[in-house]
Amino acid sequence: MNTDLISTIKKSFIKKFNNEPLMIFSPGRINIIGEHTDYNDGFVFPAAIDKGIVAAIAKSDSNVSIIYAEDKRETFEVTLKHIKPLSQGFWQNYILGVVAELQNRSKTISNFNMVFGGDIPGGAGMSSSAALENSVVFGLNELFDLGLTKHEMILISQKAEHNYVGVKCGIMDQYSSMFGIINNALLLDCRTVKSIPFEIDFKDYELILINTNVKHGLSDSAYNDRRSVCESIANMLNVKALRDATEYDLETIQDQVSSENYQKALYVIQENERVINASKAIKNDDLKALGQLLYASHNGLQNQYKVSCDQLDFLVEQAKINPNILGARMMGGGFGGCTINLISKTESSAFKAFISKAYKQKFNKACSIYSVKLSNGTHLIN
Ligand code: GLA
Known about the structure:
13 strands, 4-stranded antiparallel beta sheet, Alpha-Beta Plaits
């Protein structure tokens, strides 16, 4: 965990509000495999990481609540009686959304002050948004003794994103941020919302993230479009979600859907299988097989589900020609953000130097490279 960030946030809170806050760390996440499967009731394989949001929060006697975003140096005041999304709002809506969801569930909270900051760049596909939502719901639950379970909290975070941010996300990000286990990835069944932890030790290999530092516009609407295509095909197949469909089922309606939408549904069915196969590969220490699944996942995201972009494809192509990289793929919602790469530890620094130069040459823009540690989920750090 980033101790500098913790002390910055704490100091900033005390300076502003002159009392001792509760301190919370809420992590971002990586996802080994299983992209766009969560809202199809399918499987995903995420892990919480040692980067995320640090929040300081305390009750207030004032008649407004004051929230300060340290990174943006922006203050926001809100009257709890009149909560609605801000049309110009960005980070504010994640917080307002959580407060509104608590109120919808008749959970009584009074005014509070909060300062937060983070060490994952927004738009990197590492779920700074879920980390922020979880930090708020977790903090308010502690502060006002709301008695929420972690499962209830993640549903509140998810609803905040649906209703106040407008992204009809699945449950992967909120789940992994809340329930992460140090050194483990979680094979999560998004229908039962239960996971099996897998201890991750890739021995001579490691996972690195390469951030394209781009986030293409319209990614939210493209996300919601994908979700509704999946739901309409599940409807046509008379199943609850695409998780319940096989490739054979899909073939039976091939002439009733466009070939683009057919490929999208096919991608989801195949990606679900890849997640299960990846968990077997990890169990058997078969990193080559795992790597192949990562490349196949990217191929599907690029060509079938169509949520990649040139920058992501370039990074994966460069990984593919390096024999010391077993697999790579775009991670998260897509249209920018990071790739995740399974690379030999001895190759790591040479590849980092190579890819930084190659990316800069190709796009006239720097990429960023991160190593991450797998961490525990949202928790108090007092
Ligand atoms: C975003 C969403 C998740 C998930 C991924 C794609 O991160 O928030 O619910 O759908 O995209 O796998």
